[in-house]
Design brief:
Two copies of one chain form a homodimer. With about 170 residues, chain A is mainly alpha-helical. The structure holds a DNA duplex (30 and 30 nucleotides). Chains A, B: This is PadR family transcriptional regulator.
DNA sequence: GCTGGACATGTCAATAGTGGAAGGTAAGGT
DNA sequence: ACCTTACCTTCCACTATTGACATGTCCAGC
């Protein structure tokens, strides 16, 4: 039931059509949550049926702009504050690490080194992104900044871990 | 197609029945990948049809022990070395952070503080786990140790980030 | 001998998510 | 006028995942 709340959250920030929301998923939120067209339009229909959102305007080309309702805002608050975010239980990269005993130590180090390079690139990208954004003092940008900082720390952690892991393999297996 | 490779990886380490694998998913791998019964037995059937695994023994209670085939090992290697792990694109906790502007700053700090406590608990748990395990020098334990270290670093990163984030909110909004 | 718990596999219905095709409208440039 | 591009929604087929239910066997302790 998370897509539902992602949509509610986006509409709580500002009303928009399915097409608008799709763009927001593809850009600002792409590293946090994603949705495809089919999923999104389906969810909008369900949310409207449940009276958590409503059509606030209609535009050209059949465009329907949705806005969150009071019931929707209340549902969003409940999700934010009363439900515990489940601990993440899937990580494809780590799954591979688990099975790295199936290849040679050299190959395993190669895998980790590629991953480390990727994380290093990400660190730079996020730093550049942060520098390029004009951080005003409004709420949305404050919380977006917290999320961006999380990304930076995550990427740095993976970069350092990958380096350490490759060295550990070398020490243990050559 | 990741469950497929998770199963192949487990069977590459040691043969086992569906029931065995389920236990391994629930314990050793629970923070890395999960699978339910229905998914697992279904996947075992598909993998057998594709000749990536085979029944290596039958036991009491209809038990079928599966073992990986050469084709399966080759598929596993390809997945490990030639496919790029996709960047994670969903994080429910971060999604909530994104929308924290919908609640008061006090509530937002409460959310982050609870999350920080959770991460702190995890750091301790993982440290205890590490201390309790008898790390011999075999391959599986080397790579399991790398994964465990990742978990420790991840939890520590989240703990520190949550603390920083709560302080940042206090500084900006009180 | 019985019984409860662990072992073991299988099916079903429902929801979540992916990818693509189809069908159409509006606006802007040439 | 024409054409391209962006806008916008809807539908469909497929795979992945969850959770519950069904069914039965073996084994240890009483």
């Amino acid at each position: 039931m998370t897509l539902r709340h992602a949509v509610l959250g986006l509409l709580a920030t500002a009303p928009g059509s399915g097409y608008d929301l799709l763009k927001r998923f593809e850009t600002a939120m792409s590293s946090v949550w994603t949705a495809t067209q089919s999923q999104l339009y389906g969810e909008l229909g369900k949310l409207e049926s449940a009276d958590l959102i409503e059509v606030s305007a209609e535009g050209p080309r059949g465009r329907k702009e949705y806005a969150i309702t009071d019931a929707g805002r209340s549902e969003l608050r409940t999700w934010l504050l009363e439900e515990r975010p489940p601990a993440a239980r899937r990580n494809e990269m780590l799954l591979r690490v688990y099975f790295l005993g199936e290849v040679t130590p050299e190959e395993a180090r190669g895998f980790l080194s590629r991953h480390g390079d990727f994380a290093k690139g990400l660190v730079d990208e996020l730093a550049a992104l942060e520098a390029s954004v004009d951080w005003d003092d409004s709420d949305p940008s404050l919380y977006g900044r917290l999320a961006l900082e999380w990304g930076k720390r995550y990427a740095a952690m993976e970069r350092d871990w990958a380096k350490w892991a490759a060295e550990t393999i070398r020490a243990a297996r050559g």
